[in-house]
Amino acid sequence: MMAKVTFIQPDHRRRTVEIENGYTVMQGATANNIAGIKAECGGACSCSTCHCYVETTWFDRLPPVEDEEAGLLEFAWEPKPTSRLTCQLVVTDELDGLILYVPEQQL
Ligand code: FES
Q: pTM of the full predicted structure?
């Protein structure tokens, strides 16, 4: 199964990609060359450059933020209450339709 995930850039361009269940949203983004998702640490939850803002109605539907992610998000560029690290979001059917805003910059 796949989930469709939409990335909206700061200039409002949007792209929807399909990501297979079990992969992280970050992996799906980099595999599809989504601009602005750098993922410098390769998904080890240690760089924060895979940061996105989750569309508000989607935020509460995601699995909760673990301590490690919360700690690292403080170092992301302009974190907001809806911030997540996309390498910590594993795709499932429940994420089909997810909408994410790419920050203006990463760090
Ligand atoms: S890819 Fe480095 S924290 Fe997500």
A: 0.97
Ligand 1 contact, 85 CB (< 6 A): yes
Number of domains in the chain: 1
Per-residue pLDDT of the chain (107 residues; tens, 9 = 90+): 999 999 999 999 999 999 999 999 999 999 999 999 999 999 999 999 999 999 999 999 999 999 999 999 999 999 999 999 999 999 999 999 999 999 999 98
The C-alpha angle 32, 35, 40, rounded to 5 degrees, equals: 85
CATH number at 42 reads 3.10.20.30
Testing ligand 1's pocket by substitution, the residue of 41, 65, 74 carrying the most ligand atoms inside 8 A of its CB is 41
| 29 CB near ligand 1 (under 6 Å) | no
Cβ 90 under 6 angstroms from ligand 1: no
User: 82: which 2 tokens?
Assistant: 């809806």
| CB of 102 closer than 8 Å to CB of 34 | yes
Expressed as residue numbers, the domain containing 81 is 2-101
